[in-house]
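USER: I would love a firmer grasp of how sequence relates to backbone shape in proteins. This is the protein in question:
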Amino acid sequence: MAWPPDPYVQPKLNRAEAGAYLERIKLPSTLLDSPPSLSLLSTLFLSHLEQIPKDTTPLHVPEAQWNGPSTPIKLSSAFTNMPLGASAFDRIIHENKGAFCFSINATFASFLRYFGFTVSELVGRSFKSLGNDPTTHPDGWKWGTLTHQLLVAGWPDSAERYLVDGAWGPGNLAKPIKLTTDPAGETIIGLNEFEAYRLVYETIPLSPNMTPPVDNFPGYTLYRRFAPIGTAHTLPITANSPGYWSPLFHFLLISVPPADFMLYHHFSASHEMASFTAFWLITRIIPGSGGARRSMMYAEKEGQGKRAKVYTTGGPEGRGSDEGRDVEWVEMETGPMKEYLTKEFGFKF
């Protein structure tokens, strides 16, 4: 691969490609002439999350294996098969499949640029004790490596910029959230009253026993609110409100050039310590459900057999619980898996 002469060049879809993207996310082609706005960003973002899944299947099944006789699926058997960046366009748009963040968010960014949005592609540090209160849990502020791509979008006529993330998966914020340097941060209710999120401008929070960085400056931390099941969130959320804030990720507002994402992609998808190769996941928001999510998950654990669990979480019906409901099981073999992914997730093989 030749080294790019312009390291910060930003891919942008043409009109035909943007039209195909709109069709993929079930929005009308009349939007092609829409100017950038918060309303348009919100519409594109939610429809994207409802139609395009986070999907680790390319890491586990070589494409040729889908077309042969039904065979067992072995995790990580397609180690280097995950597409990177906007090269995932055909897989996402024409094959109706998904990918992980370094593919989905890069492709979504190129789509947003068609409309005139100014999009910065960033990398974040994921929180490794998801769902726990870092101020009381033994894990404390347990941060992982830079393994998540996210986007910050604005447009020429707006002084505001917004975080949008098309590929976090379960717990995904499905509305744009404004970046602010106000110490209180920006807090919003999600797609239903049992979801709340906060974006805070701060240096990365660390436990008292952790060594602080020699050089450090503020970035942004996205938090999700956890409260007793059945607790509806209302604004403002204060220190006296039930529940606690648990981080999803922390990021610095520094644009990352596409070539650098090759390093992050390698560590996540093809390095010997790659984390995404350890599990099978397909997940997306159910259209029109108010935030309910349908997911398929499998990881190799003793005593659980070779079946992937399919389940629904979130939405108004979930009332703030992450407990799975409407559970189904699918054999980890290409035959039944291909049939299920075609029928339930719309994959094209």
Observations:
- Residues 15-345 form a domain with the Arylamine N-acetyltransferase fold fold (CATH 3.30.2140.20).
- The helical segments are 15-24, 38-51, 63-67, 89-94, 101-114, 258-269, 315-318, 334-345.
